[in-house]
Every structure is written in structure tokens, then in C-alpha cells.
Design brief:
Helix 12 crosses helix 15, helix 14 crosses helix 18 and helix 18 crosses helix 22. The N and C termini lie far apart (80 Å). Helix content is 43%, strand content 12%. By secondary structure, it is of the alpha/beta class. The protein has 23 helices and 14 strands.
Length: 500
């Protein structure tokens, strides 16, 4: 309901206000959303046909929820979006620590105030944003933190017996009464602490140090957990898991397009960066494809997962890499290049957990491998597969002429090409035009591409041909890449090995 000008209990009764549980409140508001064909989960992408329907069913059933999924799958975001399903304002007894309902008070403070003042009991209003509590489960979390404890200082100051309910200090869960409470990474919570939640979930009451106290708390509980935590750091005790009515499995974006939309929504870029740096759709696709490749790489621990934060961080670093070049060269505007992906490496190495083989390979090499695999996968979406031009087993069937052959032949004549990441746009394009047949090959498939677009496609073609082992590519210490003939590079490597 809207926040009316109601200051005391009598006015509240006259307004027609009726009490209701948090789960009924959320259910009723969700029903209105569904009837209007709207979603309360406005910022969640990729879950429209999977996770969100599961959540809606759980909320309609008035269930507590456990989100089970790998890191970076918007588990906490889903919980935070549930705030939209709360009434904008609700009345509470003024001064109550646990948001007592004026019509159904549960704390000793609220009951005494009602006895003393009756219909003149003062009323406050709290906004939906204040009815959400969140706690990250860590090994040092105690029962006192979550449930509460006897406060000896409070007892001494008020000259109370420890048997007096007023000597209690409420934890974060009682203070979330009539709201949503989230515990993230539930398996990290010690088993004995998890046990303290049994009564709250089943009977709705709490126990503090054996104190005879019954508080029928009204809370929607949401828990999150990573499946890897079950074997890595801890587990959810079975009786607690049994008391959580709905367990919902989350997942990573199923397509590059969805992943790209999430990245663009979450990336924290300044307007001046967006004005200075143009990010072509191809480069956006490559950023997402890197994460896709990591999620199936033999070097990456798949049980740990590859967070969506990888692509968000990578996208931000990609833009900043191009911006840095523009600032250094005095350019007012620039376009992201393939070479700018060198600036994405720190976003990859910091976001993936490697298995033993990956540790042996080294995080930098794994990052470059993932970028190479992303280029190879994306290449065939823009150009024909180079492997389709190879001769087949049947000698009677002629192989189609390869549009890439002039480029390969140019390098075969002993030519090489060095592309520095810091080069200004004019020098960058001039180097690419040196390669015979490269511009013609691009124009064959993209006749309407302008100069900047053609330059990016030319560079992309070189990187793609190197990933299909038709030309060689190696990094330059200053930042960038050099391309050369594949066979010549192999011979040079052999000679270097003999010299050693």
C-alpha cells in the first residue's frame, strides 16, 4: 500500500489495513505482475524460459528458495530483484527493532507499548528497500550474529535479569522480520550454525541460549550455494536442505547473444569512453566467445565455473585498451582492433581456476589459447571455413579455389607483417594494405564495408588464418603480433633449437 499520513494505531485501523504474511504479500503482488504480463525481474537476462518460471512457481507456492549454481550466475541478483514484489510501504510500531506489525506484535517491547498506549500507539512506515537483509556465510559467522544473544551491558544498564527478554540483543534474522533474508554461499556456514536455522524454517520461531522465547518470525528465506562447495569447503546439512522447499538450478547464458546483452548491461563504462571508442559487433562477440571457450576448456576447472564477470571485466578492459591508444596518439576517436585483445588477458587470468594441466601450461598461455580458440570459432561466422577449400580424398573432385590463397602466397614469398597495438589508425591500415590479396578477399565478402570496417576484417582474417595454421603468428614484446609464412616459421624454430 502507499504510505498514508497515518501516525497512530487508531488511524491505521480506520484505514482498513489488514495484516498479512510476507509470503502472501509476495504471492499477491506476483499474481498482479503475471496478469499484466510483466516481470519483476527486470535486469535478469537469459532466464526467461528456465530459472524465472521456477522462481515464480516457488513464490506462488510460498516457498523458501535455494539457488544452486556456479559463480557468476546471477543468484544474488535474482534474490535482490524480489524486492520489487514487496509492497512499497508497510506500517510498523515506532521504535521496534524487529519491524513489529501494529496489529500482530511479537516482541515484548511492542506488546508493552500497545498495553500502555492502546490506539495512541505511534506508527512508523518502512520502505520495501529496508525489508531486505543479506549475509555472506563465512566460517566465523556465529549464532549470535544470525539469531541473537543476551546483552550483558544492556542488562546492567537497565538493571535487568538475564532471564528478562529485554536483555536480548536480536541478530540479523529477527531484524529481517516481515522481509526477505538472504544467506549467500550457504555451505560455508558451519554445520552447527546451520542447525540453528531448523526451527526458523520449520516452526518460524527462534531460540537464544535456551531462553524461553517464541517469536513467530515472518520471513522469506533465500539461500545461494555453489555445487563445488559441497566437496571443497563444506556442505548443506541434510535436515536444513530438507526444510528449504524449492531448490532452483541456475546456469550460464546459453547463447553468445544473451551473454553479450548481459555484458553490455553490466559493463561500467563512462560516456566519454563510449564516445571515443567504437566497439564493433565482431569484437563484442569475441569477448563472449572467450568465456564460452573457457567453459569447455580442458585447462579450466569446470566445477568452479567461469563467471559472467569475466566477460564484463574483459569488455571494460578492451575499451580501455583502445582508449589508451587514442589518448597516447592524440586521436579523438578510434575503433577496437583484434590486437587490443592483448589488454583482455588480465581479465581472463584473474577469473578462471586452472586444473593441473592448465597450471603446467601457465595462466598466460591458457589465456592466449582461449582467445585463439574464440577467434577460430567466430571466424567461420564471418568468412568461409578455410578447411572447406582443402583437397578431398577423391582426386576426381577438384577443390574449390581458396579466396585466402593470395594472402597465404604473399607470406610464402618470405614477406612478414608486424602489427603493433599502439599504432595510429592510419599506420595500422597502411600495414594491412601491404598484404597482397588481403583487401580483395575482404571486399569479396563485404563489398559495402567502409575503410575502418575493412581494416578490422583484414586484421581478423590474418588472425583467423593463423588459427587454422595457414600462416604463423607470434606476439611482439612491445605489444602486438607479427605474421609470417607457416613453413618458414617452423624452419626458423628448428634452426633456433639446433643453435641452442
Amino acid at each position: 500500500m502507499n504510505k498514508p499520513e497515518i501516525k497512530n494505531l487508531l488511524d491505521l485501523k480506520r484505514s482498513g489495513y489488514t495484516s498479512g504474511s510476507i509470503k502472501d504479500e509476495i504471492r499477491n503482488n506476483l499474481v498482479h505482475y503475471i496478469q499484466k504480463k510483466q516481470s519483476p525481474f527486470n535486469t535478469i537476462l537469459g532466464y526467461e524460459d528456465t530459472v524465472i518460471p521456477d522462481v515464480e512457481r516457488a513464490l506462488l507456492s510460498r516457498h523458501n528458495i535455494l539457488f544452486l549454481g556456479l559463480r557468476g550466475q546471477a543468484k544474488t541478483r535474482m534474490a535482490r530483484e524480489m524486492i520489487n514484489l514487496l509492497d512499497e510501504w508497510i506500517p510498523v510500531i515506532a521504535g521496534s527493532e524487529i519491524n513489529d506489525d501494529p496489529l500482530e506484535p511479537i516482541s515484548l517491547y511492542a506488546r508493552k507499548l500497545l498495553e500502555e498506549k492502546g490506539d495512541a500507539t505511534p506508527i512508523d512506515w518502512i520502505h520495501r528497500s529496508e525489508r531486505y537483509g543479506e549475509k555472506l556465510a563465512t566460517p566465523d559467522v556465529s549464532v549470535a550474529d544470525l539469531i541473537g544473544d543476551i546483552d550483558p551491558i544492556k542488562a546492567a544498564n537497565l538493571r535487568l535479569s538475564f532471564a528478562d527478554e529485554q536483555a536480548l540483543h536480536y541478530g540479523i534474522i529477527p531484524r529481517s522480520h516481515r522481509g526477505i533474508f538472504v544467506i549467500n554461499e550457504l555451505p560455508d556456514l558451519q554445520a552447527r550454525i546451520q542447525v540453528s536455522l531448523f526451527n526458523i524454517l520449520q516452526e518460524g520461531d527462534i531460540q537464544i541460549r535456551g531462553f524461553k522465547l517464541r517469536l513467530p518470525l515472518d520471513i522469506l528465506f533465500v539461500f545461494t550455494a555453489n555445487p563445488e562447495d559441497y566437496t571443497n569447503r563444506g556442505s548443506i546439512v541434510t535436515p536444513l536442505k530438507d526444510r528449504i522447499e524449492s531448490q532452483i538450478i541456475t546456469h550460464y547464458p546459453k547463447t553468445v547473444e544473451i551473454s553479450k546483452a548481459i555484458t553490455e548491461q553490466e559493463a561500467n563504462l563512462l560516456p566519454e569512453q563510449l564516445k571515443k571508442v567504437e566497439v564493433p559487433d565482431m569484437c563484442r562477440m569475441l569477448v563472449e566467445q572467450i568465456a564460452m571457450e573457457a567453459r569447455k576448456s580442458e585447462f579450466v576447472d569446470q566445477k568452479s565455473g567461469v563467471s559472467a564477470r569475466l566477460t564484463i571485466s574483459a569488455y571494460e578492459n578492451l575499451v580501455s585498451t583502445a582508449e589508451l591508444r587514442a589518448l597516447g596518439s592524440g586521436q579523438q576517436h578510434t575503433m577496437v582492433r583484434i590486437a587490443d585483445f592483448l589488454g583482455v588477458v588480465p581479465s581472463i587470468t584473474g577469473k578462471i581456476e586452472l586444473v593441473y594441466e592448465g597450471e603446467q601450461e601457465g595462466p598466460l598461455n591458457v589465456a592466449h589459447r582461449l582467445m585463439g580458440q574464440a577467434i577460430r570459432t567466430t571466424f567461420t561466422q564471418y568468412f568461409p571455413d578455410p578447411q572447406s577449400f582443402k583437397k578431398g580424398r577423391d582426386p576426381k573432385i577438384k577443390a574449390k579455389p581458396s579466396p585466402y590463397q593470395p594472402v597465404i602466397d604473399w607470406f610464402g614469398k618470405g614477406n612478414d607483417l608486424a602489427m603493433l597495438q599502439e599504432e595510429m589508425d592510419a599506420a595500422y591500415l597502411a600495414h594491412l594494405y601491404q598484404v597482397d590479396g588481403l583487401y580483395a578477399a575482404v571486399k569479396q565478402f563485404y563489398p559495402n564495408a567502409d575503410e575502418a570496417q575493412a581494416g578490422l576484417l583484414m586484421e581478423f582474417m590474418l588472425h583467423g588464418l593463423s588459427e587454422f595454421s595457414l600462416i604463423s603468428k607470434k606476439g611482439i614484446e612491445k605489444g602486438g603480433y607479427s605474421f609470417a609464412d607457416m613453413l618458414g616459421s617452423m624452419l626458423n624454430m628448428s634452426l633456433e633449437d639446433e643453435d641452442e
